[in-house]
Each structure stands twice: as structure tokens, then as C-alpha cells.
Specification:
Blueprint lengths: L5 E12 L2 E12 L3 E5 L6 H8 L7 E6 L2 E2 L5 H7 L1 E4 L11 H8 L8 H10 L1 H5 L10 H13 L5 E5 L7 H16 L3 E6 L2 H7 L2 E6 L2 E7 H6 L1 H7 L6
Parallel strand pairs: 3-8, 3-9, 6-7, 7-8
Antiparallel strand pairs: 1-2, 1-4, 4-5, 9-10
Helix pairs in contact: 3-6
């Protein structure tokens, strides 16, 4: 791995909500072109980590390095134009705007919309093209998730942060969306994926980190984590407690 370029690195990150320590000194790295997943139960600190990368939350200490720049010193509104975009937990699409208007908003940091990117998003998610004039609020949960991911791609990011893309979706849709995440990575976009669905995430990702109550308790390749007894017990339901 050492000959590959570290695109993104978190060093000794601590994040607090008031007196509660949500993230307790985590470190991780992501190489260019990888899919890396952060796994963990509810309340483990996954979304907090994502929100801190996007600077929606401020770190108490530590560094988040993207191509050598410490993001903790960068205002939130500059993060997207640096090449990092996020598809947030809960999708957060604008229900009173059309599908295409939502996608256009994803390109707000660009001087003009890249038509090739829009075409690529429609190729990834043909359903969005079919429904491009439809109000986003009328889409199904799965279609809204596709829209949230598509919107995040419209800024032509180098890294896309996906927060719980499988949340509340039927297994068949999860499969379809994860297949498209693989396509996104094949295009050269680096993916950091936060997921509760450990099996689907590890089958997709190159490497993973397991977060538990704000600390990284395990890390390794997807194969290593899938065969880890701890992971099997906690997330894959292989043993009864």
C-alpha cells in the first residue's frame, strides 16, 4: 500500500458535543481510488466523523488532511470546491424542487454545470433521468437516495462521503445502489462510506474501520474484517449472544 497516494487522512481526531466526547482520538487513512467503509452501531460516532470532515462540526483536536491541507482550518462552504462532497444521512433532498433542479444544486461550486457529469449521473441512475422533471418529494426512498448520491457527484468531487446510503431501503435496492457505488469508484472517485449494513459494505469496500463509542476498535481489509469473529458476532449475526 505504501506506494499508493494517501488522499485523505484523519489524525488523532477528537470531537465533543458539550461535555460529551463523541470521537475519542481516531486515526484513519484513505488511498486514492479506494472504497473505505466506517462501520459501527448507532451512536458509534460514524455520522459525527462525516460531519466533522465536512466541517459542519468542529474538531476539538486532531487533524483531517486532504491532499496535505488540514480541513479543520477550512470553513465549511469551501470544502466542496476543494473536491469533497457528501451525500448526507437521511438523503435531505429538496422536495419542492425537481430532480434535475436538485442535481443542479450539487454543482453550485462550479461556474457552469458539467453536462458530461450530468449525463454520467443519468447513466448511473436511469430512474433519475426518467423522473427529471418530477418533484423530488414525490420520489420513493430508493430514488431519493439515488438523487442524493447523484447530487453529491455533480461537483465532480475527488472524494465522495456517503452516509448510510442503505438506510431504510429494501435489500434489492441496496444491491442496486451498492453496484452503482462500485461504478463511481471505477470512475476514479474515492469513496468513504459510513454504513450499518456491515455485510453489504464489506463486500463492496477495499478496507474498513470499525468504530465503537468514538474509538476505532478494528481495521483491516474487507476480507480480514469479514472473517473477524468480532465483526461476525457484532454485525453479521453469526453467533448468538
Amino acid at each position: 500500500m505504501s506506494d499508493r497516494e494517501v488522499l485523505f487522512e484523519i489524525k488523532d481526531l477528537e470531537v465533543s458535543y458539550g461535555s460529551i466526547d463523541a470521537i475519542k482520538g481516531i486515526s484513519l487513512e484513505v488511498y486514492k481510488g479506494e472504497i473505505v467503509t466506517i462501520l459501527g452501531a448507532n451512536g458509534a460516532g460514524k455520522t459525527t466523523t462525516m460531519r466533522t470532515i465536512s466541517q459542519l462540526l468542529k474538531a476539538k483536536s486532531g487533524a483531517i488532511l486532504f491532499k496535505g491541507t488540514d480541513l479543520t482550518k477550512v470553513p465549511a462552504h469551501k470544502i466542496v470546491s476543494m473536491g469533497i462532497s457528501q451525500s448526507p444521512e437521511g438523503r435531505r433532498v429538496f422536495g419542492i424542487l425537481t430532480v434535475e433542479e436538485n442535481l443542479m444544486l450539487g454543482a453550485y461550486t462550479r461556474k457552469r454545470v458539467n453536462r458530461e457529469t450530468l449525463q454520467w449521473v443519468y447513466e448511473l441512475f436511469p430512474r433519475l433521468e426518467e423522473r427529471r422533471k418530477q418533484l423530488a418529494g414525490t420520489l420513493s426512498g430508493g430514488e431519493q437516495q439515488m438523487l442524493a448520491i447523484g447530487r453529491a457527484l455533480m461537483s465532480d468531487p475527488e472524494v465522495v462521503l456517503l452516509d448510510e446510503p442503505s438506510l431504510g431501503l429494501a435489500p434489492i435496492l441496496v444491491k442496486a445502489i451498492f453496484k452503482q457505488i462500485r461504478e463511481i469508484a471505477n470512475k476514479g472517485v474515492t469513496v468513504l462510506l459510513v454504513e450499518q449494513n456491515a455485510k453489504a459494505a464489506l463486500n463492496l469496500a477495499d478496507r474498513g474501520y470499525v468504530l465503537d463509542v468514538g474509538k476505532i476498535v478494528l481495521s483491516g481489509t474487507s476480507e480480514e474484517l469479514l472473517s473477524s469473529e468480532k465483526v461476525q458476532e457484532a454485525y453479521l449475526g453469526k453467533k448468538s449472544h
